[in-house]
Amino acid sequence: MEQSTAYKDATRTIEERIDSLLAQMTLDEKIGQMTQPEKNSITPEDVTKYFIGSVLSGGGGNPTPNNGESWAQMVKGFQKAALETRLGIPLLYGVDAVHGHNNVVGATIFPHNIGMGATRDADLVERCAQVTAQELLATGVHWDFAPAVSIPHDFRWGRSYEGYADNPAVVSELGAAFVRGLQAPNGGEAHILPSVKHYVADGGTTWGSKKSYEWIEFVWESETDKWSIDQGDAQIDEETLRTIFLPPYKAAIEQGALNVMASYSMWNGVKLHGHKYLLTDVLKDELGFEGFIVTDWMAIDQLSENYYDAVVHSINAGIDMNMVPFDYKRFITVMKEAVEKGDISMARVDDAVRRILRAKFWQGLFEKPITDDHWLDDFGGEAHREVAREAVRKSLVLLKNENHALPLTAEAGPVLVAGEGADDIGLACGGWTIEWMGNKGAITPGSTLLEGLKAQLGDENVKYSAEGAFSTTEKAPVAVVVVGEDPYAEGEGDTSNLALRAEHVALVERVRAVCDKLVLVIYSGRPVILSDVLAECDAIVAAWLPGTEANAIADVLVGEAPFEGKLGHNWPRSMDQVPLSALKASDQGPLYPYGHGLSL
Ligand code: GLC
Prior knowledge:
The chain is of the alpha/beta class. The protein is built from 19 helices and 18 strands. It has a domain at about 385-585: 3-Layer(aba) Sandwich (Rossmann fold). Helix 1 crosses helix 13 (about 345-365), helix 5 crosses helix 14 and helix 7 packs parallel to helix 9.
């Protein structure tokens, strides 16, 4: 087949370049572009052999050692293999950088979206995305499976912290800002491809509605609360879907976003991954989405026990690329058989490939498939971390402040600090950090609230005990107690009980006995039920999941920076006000309403 090199000519329009390339691609090369294995399942040699268009790292899909340089080498190895194919189509390497390049040790980790939502600051969100993009480029990564534009309507959902707010306009504005930041990390030299997710109404599912897929070995199920609402069924009418959950996608498309990730969930019992009306008629035709739709991890497999039927159903519904982490060869074989049988038309394949190539040409991937090493110079550096500290400060929501508990001062004596979270970076970061589920401990470089308080007040003026074990000779003027949630992600964080753990209630009571004023700081991915401690606390601060720069919390607690954060959700009084529909039906208002946030 005569090979035209017109597609390599950057002076031509993107559509001309796509036409030139598509016209000379074989079916194998086209199917390869639609295939995205996970990096542990494929060798660079097979990337070349199967014309693979994309490779991903799932949560925790890290090289060894796990650092920027090692990541850059890994990604470069896959990219060079893609460039060795007949047509030299560069691959897209994708990761979940949902609050910074969070898989990589040493990266700058920002507050999770629920904290960013509390800032209501689109410019700040854009700048955080730009820093994230620069750290992605430092590792050769061109595709970020973010922003999640989820709108959680039930805090029992383990992904609540991935949503900015319970307000379509706010989510649209902040999601669009994140898209802008990724697409132009420094005035446009390089573009990171955002993935707006999870389409659509992933946050509107009903507790207990998740199906089981016994034919899938790699399943997420549990006899406990876990996986009870994630990937469930959004039992809502079309007006609700269109007025609440669809607007953030419109806003992202207006920013030029060229990738959307389909949701595992269902809409009134129909899986999104096979929903032609929503994927094709609404997203592509009605909203004019010209990019490509990628599946979620192995999500096609959930459509049918018969894999052939699942693939045909999903691709014909409008899926363009399959995130097929493991058995990519089976997908390729099935795709080829389905096209040869006519169950999937060549026109559908060409449309999918055209969309994928459009994103790659738009990114400049053909001109610069391998990023410059200079991006590594600032990776996790001070300038990036200062942006994260600004985000931490602006994300804090002051829920309660009585008896002038805040601002903190050591003038009357040492400040007591209790709670393991005060000195634990892993607890400050939450899920999606280094490992999929995150972990406690010094998992990555950063600074803790305790370090921040010592820097602000002086080491001699801060007494720390994780267990709140202080001498009881005399009461301290003020104590800071950090409570909250251990790290989790996705359905592993689904829970029917949002109350503070008994050990944290006991910790508050223990410290209450040895201080005049008690300031509660909450590290959580969602509102938690505070009834057991509310009366014990003079001040309460929602710090969400602040990331590696938790020392910045101290700047606000001592009054050096203002409290600016506003709740993006109604904060329920009890589990009787969860989910949102129960709160609306409740004859009491929320403990703290949407938009609440005190200042000093
Ligand atoms: C996960 C998540 C999705 C993520 C993908 C790749 O299961 O649902 O948000 O982008 O798989 O890690």
